[in-house]
Design brief:
Ferritin; single chain; globular; mainly alpha
């Protein structure tokens, strides 16, 4: 079953979000001062690359050649944690922004899941959405363990 116009648009929108997540997490891994957070952001970036590949695969299998402005960029090189002081950004702010991003991305997948006609595509999108929710949980736990997210 070919993609509907709506499915294609939703998948392309989510692909944009995934590319932004990859870029953001790679940048945050370079900028974080805490070594554990550097690894958390690196792991999340790698997982988001898998989502990019899944979405590109869906588009490709349906004859859509997706050209994305976010696809190529210069990946951050080395430790950029010294930039935090110059920019006035803390590890807490990096985590908070990442968590907000995951909330947004998960919500975007919710719409895509609910508006997909093809059950196979819906299942793939549901799987990615669940992984995005897992990413949010990882970030939440990192914040909570450091006292940066109170649930009171």
């Amino acid at each position: 079953m070919p993609l509907t116009n709506k499915e294609q648009t939703l998948i392309e929108d989510n692909l944009n979000a995934e590319y932004l997540c990859v870029r953001k997490y790679e940048q945050y891994a370079a900028m974080a001062s805490d070594q554990n957070l550097k690894q958390v952001f690196t792991d999340l970036a790698n997982r988001e690359v898998q989502h990019v590949n899944t979405l590109k695969g869906i588009l490709s299998q349906n004859g859509v050649n997706s050209q994305n402005i976010f696809e190529s960029y210069n990946k951050p090189q080395g430790d950029l944690s010294n930039m935090q002081n110059n920019l006035g950004i803390t590890d807490a702010q990096l985590l908070n922004d990442a968590l907000s991003t995951e909330k947004h991305v998960s919500s975007s997948y919710n719409t895509a899941v609910l508006e997909s006609v093809d059950p196979n595509i819906r299942k793939q999108l549901q799987h990615i959405q669940q992984e995005e929710q897992n990413h949010a949980e990882i970030l939440f736990k990192e914040m909570q363990s450091r006292g940066w997210y109170s649930v009171k």
